[in-house]
């Protein structure tokens, strides 16, 4: 019996894109369902009644939520092209940097674009410091995990489509974006710019 794999996402969400990239790298066939977050479908609410958000992976009728958790589930379920290393310490380190990306790097970049004056200056200092940590972790490596794309690269893949060019990790961004499974599933730049401008205008109005 064929496996049923469905992914509830939006076309621009970096969290949904993580799952797309992981499934593509693993060669897993899946049904992609783009949600309208202003009018969430009954299925999304059924599969994620607690957080009511994307992404949601549904595997043979069973939902898995939260993008980093979904990535680990994918890696444990489909063993080909592993995303996490076998060594326990390296696995723990990969999880640390993925969480750092969400908790520190991503949250520090947004205020640079939405704040002004002193708040923006402070955010710039913090974001630069966070990116320096990532740069240090990348030194001497093609990808965060070494020569092959892995868990941390996918978790931080949202950096590859930033409107801003982050010089500190530009080389990694170019390597990451050149991998066929990633390149073929990056949102169109013009669409991302338009979406970004909409978010930015709304943030500045507030």
UniProtKB/TrEMBL annotation:
Catalytic activities: RX + glutathione = an S-substituted glutathione + a halide anion + H(+)
Protein name: glutathione transferase
Highest taxon of the lineage: Eukaryota
Family matches, as Pfam families: GST_C, GST_N
Organism (species): Hevea brasiliensis
Family indicated by similarity: Belongs to the GST superfamily.
Keywords: Transferase
SUPFAM superfamilies named in the record: GST C-terminal domain-like, Thioredoxin-like
Matches recorded under InterPro entries: Glutathione-S-Trfase_C-like (IPR010987), Glutathione-S-Trfase_C_sf (IPR036282), Glutathione_S-Trfase (IPR040079), Glutathione_S-Trfase_N (IPR004045), GST_C (IPR004046), GST_C_Tau (IPR045074), Omega/Tau-like (IPR045073), Thioredoxin-like_sf (IPR036249)
Residues of the GST N-terminal domain: 3-82
Documented EC number(s): 2.5.1.18
Domain GST C-terminal, residue spans: 87-206
């Amino acid at each position: 019996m064929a496996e049923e794999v469905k992914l509830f996402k939006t076309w621009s969400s970096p969290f949904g894109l993580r799952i797309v990239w992981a499934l593509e790298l693993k060669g897993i066939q899946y049904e992609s369902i783009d949600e309208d977050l202003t009018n969430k479908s009954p299925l999304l609410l059924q599969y994620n009644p607690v957080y009511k958000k994307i992404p949601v992976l549904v595997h043979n009728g069973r939902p898995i939520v939260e993008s980093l958790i979904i990535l680990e589930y994918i890696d444990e379920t489909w063993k080909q092209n592993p995303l996490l290393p076998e060594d326990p310490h390296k696995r723990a380190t990969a999880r640390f940097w993925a969480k750092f990306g969400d908790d520190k790097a991503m949250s520090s970049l947004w205020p640079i674009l939405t704040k002004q004056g002193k708040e923006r200056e402070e955010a710039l200092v913090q974001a630069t410091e966070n990116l320096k940590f990532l740069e240090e972790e990348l030194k001497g490596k093609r990808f965060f995990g070494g020569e092959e794309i892995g868990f941390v690269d996918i978790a931080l893949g949202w950096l590859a489509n930033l409107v801003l060019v982050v010089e500190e990790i530009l080389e990694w961004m170019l390597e990451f974006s050149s991998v066929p499974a990633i390149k073929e599933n990056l949102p169109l730049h013009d669409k991302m710019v338009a979406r970004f401008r909409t978010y930015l205008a709304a943030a500045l109005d507030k």
